[in-house]
Amino acid sequence: MSRGVEKTALQAASLFGLILCVLTGIWAWQAGLLTSQERLQAFVASCGAAGGLLFVAFQMVQVVVPVLPGGLGCLVGVVLFGPVMGFVYNYVGICIGSLLAFAVARNCGRPLLSLLFSEKLIAKYSDWTERNDRFARLFALAIFFPVAPDDFLCYLAGTTSMTWRRFTTIILLGKPLSIALYSLGLTVLFQQITGWLG
């Protein structure tokens, strides 16, 4: 399969995922799930343990195939499952997804980056990889603070000589703070918006 065909297929998959998310959002809005936190939580509770597993799977997939901003998933996790279990589900899903992204990039190499991300983004961070010790430090800082494109950086890390052990350590230790900050900040924003709409 040529690189052009692969890129088109990935773009089509991303577009399909985006359309599916939009349609699901419209359905959820019409069903009142997005205008009432209680109704949304009751719907998820009716799914039993499958609700939590599905959300972890969603968070995992959205790291590997970025369709929605990761911070949005963090907000959804807290709204659906509360601050403690929402954090746990976010953490597990995002960490597994990060490890999968690293594994995919490790096996497919740097050409994969051009298929999934813009050349502008790749150029912005490519100089980080010039020295492996420098990349590891910058990568750890980026994962620790919620300001950088984490999904892309996990793929980029997979194209370097970073070891699995170092990558896994950075992800497992660095993700809790950024997930907590995303969750807290977006939860406050969500409460303000729903307060205005209500």
Automatic annotation (TrEMBL):
Family in the record: Belongs to the TVP38/TMEM64 family.
A GO term from the CC aspect: plasma membrane
Chief localisation class: membrane
Superkingdom of origin organism: Bacteria
Compartments (UniProt record): Cell membrane
Source organism (scientific name): Dysosmobacter welbionis
InterPro entries: TMEM64 (IPR015414), VTT_dom (IPR032816)
Transmembrane spans: 12-34, 40-58, 88-105, 170-190
Protein name: TVP38/TMEM64 family membrane protein
Pfam families: VTT_dom
Stored PANTHER family: GOLGI APPARATUS MEMBRANE PROTEIN TVP38-RELATED, TVP38_TMEM64 FAMILY MEMBRANE PROTEIN
Membrane topology of this protein: Multi-pass membrane protein
